Amino acid sequence: MNNSPITSSVPILEVSQLHVSYGTFQAVKGISFSVSSGEIFGLLGPNGAGKTSTLSAIEGLIKPQSGQITVAGFSVLEKPLYAKANMGVQLQSTSFQAELTITEIIRLYSGIYGHPLTTAEVNAKLEEINLADHSKKKFGELSGGQQQRVSLVISTIHDPQLVLLDEPTTGLDPQSRRQLWDRIDTIKAKGHAVLLTTHSMEEAEAVCDRIAIVDHGQLIAIDTPEALIAQHRNDPDVISVSRRGKITLEDVFIGLTGRAVRS
Ligand SMILES: Nc1ncnc2c1ncn2[C@@H]1O[C@H](COP(=O)(O)OP(=O)(O)OP(=O)(O)O)[C@@H](O)[C@H]1O
Q1: Mean pLDDT, range 133-142, rounded to an integer
Q2: Distance, CA 133 to ligand 1 centroid (Å)?
Q3: Mean per-residue pLDDT for 147-169?
Q4: Does this complex have an ipTM over 0.90?
Q5: Pocket of ligand 1 contains residue 51 by CB under 6 Å
Q6: Where are the domains of the chain?
Q7: Which among 15, 19, 21, 22 is the best mutation to test ligand 1's pocket, defined by most ligand atoms within 8 Å of the CB?
């Protein structure tokens, strides 16, 4: 799925020397990377590495201590409305009103995003995510995976150039996960960019064109999954954690970040 070439190298997202602190605790310590048009970029890291903090700074939810972030050329700090108009964020299911039907929710958010949808367009969106039969169900009555599908469709209503997905497939069954990967590929095919976080190395290998591994708030590796495996396949730390003789991305990840479970 990640074999197609990156068609263009126009940077949609640029993060430069990002520092995020909570009080005196430094969660992100000078992270820099860019994501290009038509690229699916994965941010990987152990629990507490600083992935969500990085995403939150890009989304403008937290103010970085220092650093620059631009989305489609607009500074998130100086032109937040322009930057936000060019990004789609998959909201957590708890962000939605459980008592509204999914039709009402999609209609509501399409208005909020400034792209009001007609009834036919809302129905088409529900068809797309195989929930047309549930159009009158309340959001709170959907399963976790169904709620996640609604959330993704809402995040892309305004056809943003950058889509941010924080662990988008957690809790999804294999069918729903494949469907979400297909939807991510569709976003890529339009020349848009996707930044996602995941703890699934299988997902990173299957979906991402490039990945960055973050640990203790710092970026410790960045490349294509294939190149990372090739670069580290002979590292003793990587070989020592490999389980079946074949070096995987997970072996490289654990080799680079260590076996210790994070607090
Ligand atoms: N609001 C906050 N106040 C204080 N510390 C915070 C806050 N949010 C995050 N942190 C801390 O910052 C660090 C980075 O957290 P962050 O949520 O960015 O990690 P993550 O890589 O997304 O982890 P996970 O994989 O567990 O979701 C952690 O040590 C966390 O405890």
Answers
A1: 94
A2: 38
A3: 91
A4: yes
A5: yes
A6: 11-86+161-223, 90-159
A7: 22
pTM of the complete model: 0.90
For 26-42, write each residue's pLDDT tens digit. 999 999 999 999 999 99
Residue 172 DSSP class: -
Which CATH code is given to the segment(s) 11-86+161-223? 3.40.50.300
Q: Quote the tokens at residue 36.
A: 């290009």
From the number of C-beta atoms within 10 Å of its C-beta (0-12, 13-18, 19+), residue 196 rates as buried
In three state form, how does the secondary structure of the chain look? CCCCCCCCCCEEEEEEEEEEEECCEEEEEEEEEEEECCCEEEEECCCCCCHHHHHHHHHCCCCCCEEEEEECCEECCCCHHHHHHCEEECCCHHHCCCCCEHHHHHHHHHHHCCCCCCHHHHHHHHHHCCCHHHCCCEHHHCCHHHHHHHHHHHHCCCCCCEEEEECCCCCCCHHHHHHHHHHHHHHHHCCCEEEEECCCHHHHHHHCCEEEEEECCEEEEEECHHHHHHHHCCCHHHHHHCCCCCCCHHHHHHHHHCCCCCC
Are 52 and 217 in contact by the 8 Å Cβ rule? The answer is: no
Residue 106 region by backbone torsions, left for phi larger than 0, else alpha for psi between -120 and 50, else beta: alpha
